[in-house]
Amino acid sequence: MTSILLRGRTLSFLRWPETIDDHSAWRYEEDGGLLIRDSRIVAAGAYAEVEKQAGERTKKIDHRPHLLLPGFIDAHVHFPQMQVIASHGAELLDWLNTYTFPEETKFQNAQHGRRIARLFLDEMVRHGTTTVAAYCSVHKASAEAFFAESHHRNMLNIAGKVMMDRNAPEGVLDTPQSGYDDTKALIREWHGKGRQLYAITPRFAITSSPEQLEMAGALCREHPDLHMQTHLSENHAEIALTQDLYPWSRDYTDIYAHYGLLGKRSLLGHCIHLSEREADAISASGSVAVFCPTSNLFLGSGLFDYQRFRRRDKALRIAAATDVGGGTNYSMLRTMDEGYKVIALNGEKLNPFQSFWQLTRGNAEALSVVEMVGTLDLDTDADIVVLDARATPAMRLRMETIESLAEELFLLQTLGDDRAVREVYVAGRAAKSDMIAG
Ligand code: GUN
Ligand code: ZN
């Protein structure tokens, strides 16, 4: 049995922090310890106390003065879009047709999928992200490549092959039947294998025929424990085209509701231009609205109204995500920095504790994986990020004037990126230094 004892300033969340003085919302240890046995956290708290529980052969790793937090979670990302990032000049539908769909046709080639899956998960680890909800391409082989790589690294990831049978080039289309059959086969092979979780993934209403959404709904009924992920209400032209394609529907959300796609494990990317009725329906179903700030700014899609959605009587569950490659950065720190600005443009503020809650426990709750990750609780998986707020000369300089944990977190969010991620543990194994060494 391998065990390691990490020492550092530990921070994890118990609930949403209402204000920066809401101390009972988090647990912070100035000299903290995390004892990890095999892949789990078996003791956590003040270092002096945790050390007493360590055996003689326990390896001790001192990360002081850095912060130890639960690994970051990215609730919406497209792994086949690594070579789409930085595609210039288009809004959503043109961007999909001009750059994204042609790029995704390359994943017909299984070898290409394996290469990109490896590089993608390297990037996740480099940036401190230990769990993602990922879209693969339409090709079954792309999901196989993703899961094989994720399983090899023992990461907890959620993913699915996209189902799309119309309004895209031939090379990225399936059919209602093949989309169903491939999804079934992938669920059989990968869901619950090690830490892998499958998400039923109809891309969005524009690229799925009514028959395909019917099949996606059948899959959700047959597998109620699975996630479902799709896109909703990102862009005005998208919404108008969707209404043309489903003229009977009351609104965009109504389409997904009609096919049985809403529910507690449903992840709805973007949700920018929702009516009150749609927000009510999403709230009532327990579905999650996924905030993708760098993508929403880059594609000029609009401003997600985070605080309104949180505060309304029928509040929405919210997750945060990069949405690479519409999103422009792999880092969840960069993502929340842009998120802060989007929220500011809506006349509101998110405090640094709220941001870091969102990146960890908040996203874990939204993805229904909080029993396993997103906290530093006993018996959860040891997915941990080590953050250095003095990682760059500019950060070091600014740290000279910083006096509180809240200020330090805000600096990490505002100036931090992969350089601030000193180490990442995936299921108790040092994954970032391993990758660099390897
Ligand atoms: N809507 C449908 N597909 C996509 C995609 O790949 N990225 C984004 N941002 N929106 C989408
Ligand atoms: Zn997306």
From TrEMBL:
Domain named Amidohydrolase-related: residues: 68-429
GO cellular component terms attached to this protein's record: cytosol
Any one GO biological process: guanine catabolic process
The keyword Cytoplasm appears for this protein: no
Entry-linked Pfam families: Amidohydro_1
Cofactor(s) recorded in Swiss-Prot or TrEMBL: Zn(2+)
GO MF: guanine deaminase activity; zinc ion binding
Name the record gives this protein: Guanine deaminase
Organism the protein comes from: Mesorhizobium metallidurans STM 2683
